[in-house]
């Protein structure tokens, strides 16, 4: 584990940077983001570029917690007072540890090389909780990659990061995609794009999701844009025999994703 350095002042440059990184403007400028909390820190892969770690003195004094820090051999580790940590924390009950990490850029061409790929495409999903939940579900389901359209909530928003529960570190996520070009490219590569849509007349259980495909989920309030819907292979409707007119985006997406999982698991056993 790297040698630790004490920070005493709220005017320290690292403390100032932490506060600035709570804004999208600073995250875009520096290509950095904050991961806060023991579980998130524990999920950071050893090869993920991490600028530095900040812990509260109380947290650092817990000997059994230091194992989490051992993988950050190349990162500076700073300790600050518990009071100062509470001031910079973005949570109600801080655990006493956060990391400043580099944003990772993924090349979509590498994803296209995967055999029988399974992708998730999110168009203008704006709620941080929905975004984080969909990323976490995709991770659990073994999705090969996620594409986020322009207009989605910032992937590196603190609430999104927390909602992923560490899944942001587990799978490729490509941001600010032009879905017009992306879907055209995917379909040229024989990757079917199935869109969750209220106007769909086909159920998820009636299509083959065992072959190369992308599942397309739209905005919470407005669904998918007409332009994007028209480019999909087909529109799929999740059955709702009850009285609700629509579903939460993350719930609908999860149902759709796990139908693909069900089919693929079944196919692998045959």
Layout of helices and strands, plus pairs?
Elements: E1 4-6, H1 13-20, H2 24-30, E2 32-36, H3 38-43, E3 50-56, H4 57-60, E4 76-80, H5 82-88, E5 97-102, H6 108-112, E6 118-122, H7 128-141, E7 145-149, H8 158-164, E8 173-177, H9 179-188, E9 192-196, E10 213-217, H10 226-231, E11 234-236, H11 249-269
Parallel strand pairs: 1-4, 3-4, 6-7, 6-10, 7-8, 9-10, 9-11
Antiparallel strand pairs: 2-5, 3-5
Helix pairs in contact: 7-8, 7-11
Describe this structure in words.
With 270 residues, the protein is of the alpha/beta class. Helix content is 35%, strand content 20%. The chain has helices at residues 13-20, 24-30, 38-43, 57-60, 82-88, 108-112, 128-141, 158-164, 179-188, 226-231, 249-269, and strands at residues 4-6, 32-36, 50-56, 76-80, 97-102, 118-122, 145-149, 173-177, 192-196, 213-217, 234-236. Strand 6 (118-122), helix 7 and strand 7 (145-149) form a beta-alpha-beta unit. The chain is elongated.
